[in-house]
Specification:
Layout (H helix, E strand, L loop, with lengths): L6 H9 L2 E5 L2 H9 L5 E6 L8 H15 L3 E6 L3 H4 L14 H7 L3 H5 L12 E4 L1 H4 L4 H8 L4 H5 L2 H8 L6 H17 L3 E5 L3 H14 L5 E5 L12 E2 L2 E2 L6 H9 L6 H8 L12 H16 L2 H16 L8 E5 L5 H7 L6 H9 L3 E3 L4 E2 L11 E5 L3 E7 L1
Helix pairs in contact: 1-2, 11-12, 13-15, 13-16, 14-15, 15-16
Length: 394
């Protein structure tokens, strides 16, 4: 496939959903306009068995590079996942076995193929970093690590925060950036792509490539999907929004997004032209966002059915005319109340339903996602498919 040098498309590639480009956007633009075919990658550590909406940001950008004719690598970090990236973590991750990471990665290509093209004239390439990290001897790895200094790694903000709080930094976590940096060297890439929170690791790769290969690697960081409090969208604790979620579940979860992330999600998760991205009616805009994402991850028919299901449940208020109604005090535990009045058999069942996105607050057009939710204000709940209850506060 011939590399496309259309300036308008390159401009969108370098701006849409992009946070920063190192060493500069101008230098990368110059290379792209020259028609040079670049090799680039993003790594996906299989610490779990699902790719989620946070991953979709990177997949969208990889697909954009692919559409312009560049060589895209979908790297599965089966070895780096054994340690787990410490980025943004104030405590150590649980160490995984290689068997577990490979089991997690079993369907990664299938999930990624909803966005990336692994066939055709310019197919994305799938690689596993265990193919080279698993073959390194201890001496070889130490020689590689010797190209980076202690001061370069310990300056990481997250490590500094841990030190302030008296938390430990495992040696494996300290060496994680070295492992990720070595991926760039082995694949001899021209550019690495990743979220803003991966900037430190990617810059380590830039330094290592300069040391070993005498080559300058570009780094492109993408924006994170966050609400106004900095909470990541698409991967809430214990309730990640997976790319292979059922269409109706996916639609409902997106409709629960806060209004302020609608435009950023259109930018990062869809291919709608920027000039056409709506920003007028939050409810209708969010419905269009959910429709576009479900359509792209499944098909138009599934998206239409998912939207119809959501509208019937939330907008048309298809609930029984007579449902159980109770009165409680503000601040009481919602799970405790539902178990007490025998709407639910146990708190474990409550937790299961919340994490499977099966409890809906019809009064506020949202899914209940907090397992520890305290009652504040009136609620009209749909629990599962058939249970309904009104809760009034004194």
């Amino acid at each position: 496939m011939k590399v496309i040098t259309n300036k308008e498309k390159i401009d969108e590639l370098l701006t849409r959903g992009v946070e920063r480009i190192y060493p500069s956007r101008e230098k990368l633009e110059e290379v792209l306009l020259s028609g040079k075919k670049l090799k680039l990658y993003q790594g996906f550590d299989p610490t779990g068995d699902k790719l989620h909406l946070g991953h979709m940001v990177g997949l969208r950008k990889l697909a954009e590079w692919q559409s312009l004719g560049h060589h895209v690598i979908f790297l599965i970090g089966d070895y780096t996942a054994m340690i787990g990236d410490p980025s943004g973590k104030l405590s150590s991750r649980k160490v995984l076995t290689h068997e577990k990471t490979m089991a997690n990665a079993k369907n990664y290509k299938e999930q990624a193929s909803k966005i990336l093209n692994f066939n055709g004239d310019n197919p994305a390439e799938v690689l596993f970093n265990g193919d080279w990290l698993g073959k390194l001897s201890a001496v070889e790895f130490l020689r590689i690590a010797g190209n980076l200094t202690y001061s370069q790694v310990i300056e990481r903000d997250m490590f500094q925060e841990r030190l302030k709080q008296g938390q430990d930094i495992n040696t494996t976590e300290f060496l994680y950036p070295v492992m990720q940096a070595y991926d760039s060297v082995v694949m001899d890439v021209d550019l690495e792509l990743g979220g803003r929170d991966q900037m430190f690791n990617m810059m380590m790769g830039r330094k290592l490539m300069r040391q070993i290969l005498k080559k300058e690697k570009f780094v492109m960081t993408t924006k994170l999907l966050e609400d106004s409090q900095g909470v990541k969208i698409g991967k809430t604790e214990g309730n990640a929004i997976a790319l292979d979620d059922k269409p109706e579940d996916l639609f409902g979860k997106i409709m629960a997004f806060p209004d302020e992330v609608i435009v950023p999600c259109f930018e990062a998760l869809t291919t709608i032209p920027m000039r056409e991205i709506p920003n007028k009616n939050p409810l209708e805009d969010k419905k269009r966002l959910a429709f576009e994402i479900v359509k792209d991850l499944n098909n138009k028919k599934n998206a239409q059915a998912a939207q119809e299901n959501w509208e019937n449940t939330f907008q048309k208020r298809e609930i029984p005319k007579e449902i159980k109604e109770i009165e409680v005090k503000d601040g009481e535990s919602l799970s405790g109340i539902l178990v007490k009045i025998k709407i639910l058999p146990s708190k474990s069942e409550w937790r299961r339903l919340v994490l499977s996105n099966a409890i809906h607050d019809l009064a506020k057009n949202r899914n209940i996602t907090d397992v520890n939710l305290k009652i504040k204000g009136n609620l009209i709940l749909k629990i599962g498919k058939k249970k309904f209850i009104k809760i009034r506060t004194k």
